[in-house]
Amino acid sequence: DGGITQSPKYLFRKEGQNVTLSCEQNLNHDAMYWYRQDPGQGLRLIYYSQIVNDFQKGDIAEGYSVSREKKESFPLTVTSAQKNPTAFYLCASSMGQREKLFFGSGTQLSVL
Amino acid sequence: KNEVEQSPQNLTAQEGEFITINCSYSVGISALHWLQQHPGGGIVSLFMLSSGKKKHGRLIATINIQEKHSSLHITASHPRDSAVYICAVIPLGGATNKLIFGTGTLLAVQP
After folding, report:
1. pLDDT of A9-51, one tens digit each?
2. What is the largest CA-CA distance in chain B?
3. What 3-state DSSP class applies to A3?
4. B65 burial class (0-12, 13-18, 19+ CB within 10 angstroms)?
């Protein structure tokens, strides 16, 4: 079945540690997105990529980094510079920039 | 004030009831999304619409561009409809990377 796979489901970060969240899609979509969800707030865009080897900052990119070396994969690294990383992270993809979004099941990141 | 407002924030219904969730926005838009987030966290796109009305099974979405308002209706509600329903808009001239999300409506359907 086609879809988006995020892993792990739960992740814990220690102080000063970088952690990487995985996002893989087999929908052959060009565009991929990373969103952060905090309680009581709407989803906020961290980074997005419209094509392989290219990505753009979203509204809250500070403390995060991404890569897009393959069409299927768009990993997100939460760096030690992100001082408040506890949140639910969602990866999404779409065929084009104005098309329906497909979401993964999310990763809950917590700080130890 | 948020650019996308949903009401109600929380809704409890009895199985079989007709449910309406509202979304109002303050910007001009090119399209509006309705999304469903289940307790496990994953999100499913229900509708994307820019005018009129769309129907899928027991779900109906309507939009009034002039009034900057959209509604999501659920007919013959069922406990499996319990989820958070999220409205999101693409501003005029924007694309998916410019989506503005509402904070969601938490729906609980009791048997």
Report:
1. 999 998 889 999 999 999 999 999 999 999 989 999 999 999 9
2. 44
3. coil
4. middle
- B99-B64-B83-A86 Cα dihedral, nearest 10 degrees: 20
Distance of CA B57 to the CA centre of its chain: 15
Cis peptide before B8 (omega within 30 of 0): yes
Cβ-defined contact of B86 to A98 (cutoff 8 Å) = no
- pLDDT for the residue A15: 85
Cα–Cα dist A60/B45, whole Å: 23
Tell me the C-alpha distance between B89 and B18, whole Å: 25
A97 to chain B, minimum CA–CA distance in Å?
Answer: 5
Chain A residues with beta carbon closer than 8 angstroms to that of B30:
98
